[in-house]
Amino acid sequence: MNLTAESHRIPLSDGNSIPLLGLGTYADPQKTPKGSCLEAVKIAIDAGYRHIDGAFVYFNEHEVGQAIREKIAEGKIKREDIFYCGKLWNTCHPPELVRPTLEKTLKILQLDYVDLYIIELPMAFKALEACKDAGLAKSIGVSNFNRRQLEMIMNKPGLKYKPVSNQVECHPYFTQPKLLEFCRQHDIVIVGYSPLGTSRDESWVNVSSPPLLKDPVLNAIGKKYNKTAAQIALRFNVQRGVVVIPKSFNPQRIRENFQIFDFSLTEKEMQEIEALNKNVRYVELLMWRDHPEYPFNDEY
Asked: CB–CB of 150/163 below 8 Å?
């Protein structure tokens, strides 16, 4: 896949397209100074990012919206240049909450629509289709769905729109080969969260797993290209057609993470990185493991 920074978008099955690299904006509201997200999004847009990934429950969509509006006012971008993905967390999933939560998101962002809206539970998909019909979301997708849950949606009688994307954890220690292949067959784009591993926050991360960015193979390949292990990990996924949404509020790292379109990994290097797969899931979402739709009990 030959990708330049200008054309780093891939098509979605509904005729829209998604930028391969986005900025993740999750941050613990208790530990993050106000305005951090605002500055990060502005720096990202200046660096060339056009894809921002957020959620109502991150409690910082007002900062994302302000950053987008300021950059539009500066003439740096137009609204249609930006791809904003919002999501409905598990806690808001009765179907009747789907549209009101998306409307709240739009009010906070001060935008007319989101480019992609995703849900985490199959029962809410019909309500999501109604949001697309109403023009509130251009594309609709899912997050953390396993194969069985995707099939449940796609085999639904009266399905109007199939999900264009599935946002899941994906990185060199968790390459998701079977889910990736299944999604490819059904024209569903994988969006990889935690593409660099994660912050080692033990309140929600499995910290017994090895830190990805210390991996000797990633660092050795990075040395060859004068790139960081993070840039190699991102390039690996992008070259497989996986969209990545690394989260950083650090200006230098935001810019560095975007510098992955000026080199390509060889077939041999791609295979070496694929061989690093340990099936290590950093984000296990254990707080939801008793839920009947907890997705991680299945193999994929």
From this structure: yes
Q: Is the pTM for the entire model greater than 0.90?
A: yes
Instruction: State the sign of the Cα–Cα–Cα–Cα dihedral 32, 25, 214, 296.
Output: positive
- On whether the CB atoms of residues 265 and 41 are closer than 8 A, the answer is no
Q: Which of 285, 288, 228 is nearest to 258 (CA)?
A: 228
Q: Can you tell me the distance from the alpha carbon of 113 to that of 111, in angstroms, rounded to the nearest whole number?
A: 6
The set of residues, in sequence order, having a beta carbon less than 8 Å from that of 12 and lying 6+ positions away, is 18, 139, 164, 165, 189
Q: Which of 26, 49, 58, 117 is catalytic?
A: 58
CB proximity list for 35: less than 8 A, separation 6 or greater: 63
How big is the CA angle at 53 (ends 82 and 16), to the nearest 5 degrees? 50
Which residues does residue 10 pair with via DSSP β-bridges, in sequence order? Answer: 18
Summarize pLDDT for 175-215 with one digit per residue, the tens. Answer: 999 999 999 999 999 999 999 987 666 665 666 778 899 99
DSSP 233-285: HHHHHHHTT-EE--B---HHHHHHHH--SS----HHHHHHHHTT-----S---
Active site residue 294: no
